[in-house]
Amino acid sequence: MEAARLEAQIIDQTKVRDREDNKRRKWDCFHIATALALGCPTFFALDERLLNRGTQLNITSAAFGKPVPRSLPIFPGTDAGIEIKELPIRAIRLED
Fold it and tell me: What is the per-residue pLDDT across 1-38, written as a single tens digit (0 to 9) for each?
């Protein structure tokens, strides 16, 4: 139900010529509605269009952002952790 409500909200904001059935819009709304139903504090996505849906739908109960590694906590709830750094990629030659 929430996904349908979100989609209707988007359709109301779009031009009449762009209101046809749109699978991408349906999936965006489904994923956002699922995150909201689960109470996720942050919705992560790489797709700019999907990230902009949060602003478009005026969602304030969850933050929208790209998944960026920060640190790996050793003990959850503390500041002690390991900083995640990008590792160099090495080519491995496979022999028959």
Answer: 888 988 888 888 877 777 788 888 899 999 999 999 99
pTM exceeds cut of 0.70: no
3-class SS of residue 37: helix
Which DSSP symbol is given to 73? Answer: E
- The amino acid sitting at 32 is I
Three-state DSSP state, 75 = coil
Pick from 96, 38, 24, 36: nearest CA to 64: 36
- Sequence-ordered list of residues with C-beta below 8 angstroms from that of 81, at least 6 positions apart, any chain: 71, 72, 73, 74
Residue ranges of the alpha helices (H) in 1-96? 2-13, 23-37, 48-56
Instruction: Name beta bridge partners: 71.
Output: 83
Identify the CA nearest to 41 among candidates 65, 25, 57.
Answer: 65
Single-letter code of the amino acid located at 51: L
